[in-house]
Amino acid sequence: MVRPAEPPAFPTPRKPRSGGLLRLVLVFVLVGGALLAALAVFAPWGFFMGGRFHIMPTWQGWGRMHSNSAGGDYAIYVWFWPDSGRLRGLTYVKGNAMLCTPRGERFNLKLGGNFERPAGLDLNGKTASFYMYNRTVKHILSGGNARPELELRGRWNNPDLALDDHGSIQRNFDHDARLRTSVTGVPYLGEVSPVTLREGGKGDFEAACTAVKTR
Question: pTM score, two decimals?
Fold first, then answer.
């Protein structure tokens, strides 16, 4: 007995993926919105750093500083935002920084800091303190230490940050702008270099890097 031919099998149609992608985007939007809402409640000053409103609670700026004992001019760039993991203080920030030396070397740094508690949303005239250290993945894997370790201290002078390096450039770099292999015997507070950080982006910093390179 001859069996009747079976109907051809058709591939099962795939379900469109657009629904899953849309849900994923929605999750990111909701999480981001919740975080921004929390910062608006607990750290509203973050949206007004530098004296004007920012739609995102971040501030970025750049500056140049000079050190006779550390070989010349240095360019620095910072980018920071309220540290949402440390709401107890309400004025802590975290972020990243970059440093260019007169030798053309660049260092990518982690940044942390804090401000004097603002009067409402206004940080103008309030003290500011930042610390920066070398903690890139490449640096850690190579067994390097945390240097350069930089400090910047001063206050907001809207729209700028008027700071000094608390002697940290000369502690970390020698007279030829080379990163010191050891800071043993180096005075903790030697030459202090002032720096004004002006609001600006990476393009401003790149131009400053080119300008400070002398070797």
Answer: 0.79
